[in-house]
Amino acid sequence: MSAKVIAVAGATGVVGRQMLRVLEDRDFPVKELKLLASERSKGMRLPFRGEEVEVEVLAEDSFKGIDIALFSAGGGTSKKFAPCAAADGCVVVDNSSAWRMDPEVPLVVPEVNPGDAARHKGIIANPNCSTIQMVVVLKPLHDAATIKRVVVSTYQAVSGAGRDALVELEAQTRAVLAGEAPVCEIFPHPIAFNCLPQIPQSGEAFMGNGYSTEEMKMVNETKKILGDDRVRVTATTVRVPVHTSHSEAVNVETEKKLTADQAREILAAAPGVVVQDDPAGYVYPLATEAVGKYDTFVGRIREDLSHPSALDMWVVSDNLLKGAALNAVQIAELL
Ligand code: A2P
Question: What is the pTM of this model?
Answer without folding.
Answer: 0.97
